[in-house]
Amino acid sequence: MPLATFAGAKTCSYALTGPFNVFRLASNLTQFSIRKGIFRNNKFKYLNLSKVKDMSERKLPRFIMCFCTGECPGFAKLDLWKLINFVRNELDVEYAIIHPQLCVTDGDNFFRDYLKETDKNKIYIIGGCDPRMQRKMFKDAFAEKGLDFDKQVISLDLRNMETAEAMKKVEEAVSKVVGA
Prior knowledge:
The protein is of the alpha/beta class.
């Protein structure tokens, strides 16, 4: 069988048979919807089609990673770039962002610029420190934009984790949001 070429000359070495659709996501990934599953990054995953009727109906979360200046000993075992590239390339997120320290003034400024009053249905997964600290530090910025931190934010404590463990924790949070 001939190889299929998609997404700017990337070659798919898998034989695609039967009906399929090609579509693009905000993260510039190409996915192949094949009957009851999805082919993405050389992996085939079955989807529960009763939960996902149409990709346009899926609510993709936004991932924000706070890396605590990069010098926090709590993140010493975490390979930030491996984690962030896993999230943006392998998981169903709208996009992934890294911020060096969300709990200081420029973090407040970031949230004021980034959050929009129209984002009431958006879900934010924030990786970083203790979820109680995240709530204390970020809830006011969400409230200023009319957003509900408790309903729209999933705070993940990723400190003192190996990269693979952090990847799994983020993947579980994303799966809960998208229902996959």
